[in-house]
């Protein structure tokens, strides 16, 4: 082929490929814009005041399309599918307790997105903020609202995704002390200190200000650990436990269990572990659960499953009875404030 | 674990491509041969494409598909092993019948096909399979491409040619995440658009290769008769019987055994200097930026003062980085800058320079195999180093592990200095000197 011909071929290819690329981008942009328009049949969302710790109201990330997508939103617990009040504060992950909220949010930069953790007071005013090293994954506030924890995915940036890891931090709001990575805590496995470079910690759930449960992964296994902030220790209690969530009375942990025989990309089922007897109970939810469940009260679990708008919230009894039911569509990362605890 | 793979880059502002610098006052640089510029362009385009995907993949898995990416990492070791073997295969095929251009095109083509495939797969095993195929393409194309670069230029200017190629390659790697980010800015959640655009960019790279890289003949050093370049039956064994190749492969492997992987280095950097978490994703950018800026000047120095010397000096820069990390002193952000500069200099002085030095030692007929053998030896050694370093870290902590690596690197560098000294038996040097 002569040089001129080759250049013509190249130009034609640039036009064709450029057209395909442009078309794909415009199509995606159009679809993204559509998410800013309210969908018929979706939940009704209005701007308003959202106050954390209001008895009888749940606060969560609204996933419904429209101008309030991704905002912290509240509904009456008695009418979870009813009208939603949106706060204007956007979060990817959220949790609150006793009027303190932790919101993991994206920061849209000029050339790359960043993420940060923001601690909110009851009126969603920012108290503190911390830059995050990766994609937000889990967030928890301790009962009493004085200590918060979050987990992010840190990517090792290699094409095959080889070095995905988690980083979990705990912040004490009174002293301002931030434990940036729980990997610096001493980890005890079978009573002996275990050190490993491949240690990953995620999914903190608090018992009180100083004690918590979490997942530790090392050597291809996951462990339920009990953590002690003052001593800086993590002690393994049980294996094959991910994303624990402690019941309000502190006796049970709801968690993701990797079950044998399930497909490798959807291996997790929702179980409840009795911390005294270490007996496991399968819930009636038989689908793959990839979430840190929350306890709506002492008997009921709430968790997310993929839905039409990204995520729906489902509920199932913690004792293995009953069956799963939809709690709210287009919602993620809820926090409940039951009336009686008020 | 690969030379060019292991430095990575989540995102960065674009930088200029210092391919050649005509018109600089006082000194005249001969231009880099056209074929090298075309191959550099192909690598640049391809790296834009692949780094676009790399940059959004974690986000896509977590936010787009709702997967937990943790289990995903288990496949990585397997990919790297396969990719190293495929590289030998690519080098061998290029020397046998197929010719480097055809093998490289197959490798680039395979990777290009994988991008649109990402649109169709939504589970971890299938995504893993697509990424494995993509890496296979990368393994296939690397040795033939380096062979083509080495065959396209005069022996005396190979360092500069490889430097120009690596700089263009790195520029692409830095541009890719920016491109991906811009698409996601226009179209929130538009991962499918990122994959489609990435596929189009990759296809363009293949097309540029097919259209503008000369085929079997037409390179200055290359004889036109095909019989002259037919590879022997057992090219690897024959290659290692050559003293110069053996020494080079031995040194590359020896030094590779003490070359701590990038992720470990960044992790150590972050911990030892107590850098803020939000710095972490920026660390690879520092390495890539200094690699980009230094690749051509260091390549020219390598042509002038000797590639083996340059290769050794690169490892001394790495040693300097280790030493700074073992004995942290002073302001942490400034020190981090120095460490990353040294790390980037290490790549600039070793990545393309090793390929140039290998090309000096390997006859044209088995150039692809020769490059593959030396680079695979190095990559394998680095893999072993990663495992050993991880174990040492676990047993004794990061400081001791890095201290051991530094001692090992110093010893390896001394041994290599002996093995690579000019005038050693079997020194087939076209490498040193050639002063203009």
Descriptive terms for the model:
heterodimer; A: 342 residues; mainly beta; Neuraminidase; 2 domains; 6-stranded mixed sheet; 5-stranded mixed sheet; 1 helix; 46% strand; B: 436 residues; mainly alpha; Growth Hormone, Chain: A; 72% helix; globular; disordered N terminus
Provide structural commentary.
The complex is a heterodimer of chains A (342) and B (436). Chain A is mainly beta and 342 residues long. Chain A has two domains: 1-37; 46-337, 6 Propeller (Neuraminidase), CATH 2.120.10.30. In chain A, 9% of the residues lie in helices and 46% in strands. Chain A contains one helix and 27 strands. Chain A has a six-stranded mixed beta sheet with strand order 14-13-18-17-16-15, with no helix packed on it. Chain A has a five-stranded mixed beta sheet with strand order 1-4-3-2-27, with no helix packed on it. Chain A is globular, with a radius of gyration of 22 Å. Helix content of chain B is 72%, strand content 0%. The two termini of chain B are 36 Å apart. Chain B has a single domain (34-215, 239-420), classed as MFS general substrate transporter like domains (Growth Hormone, Chain: A), CATH 1.20.1250.20. The longest helix of chain B has 31 residues, at 34-64. Chain B has 436 residues and is mainly α. Chain B is globular and about 55 Å long. Chain B is built from 15 helices and no strands. Classes of the chains: A mainly beta (342), B mainly alpha (436). At the A-B interface, helix 1 and strand 11 of A face helix 2, helix 3, helix 5, helix 6 and helix 7 of B.
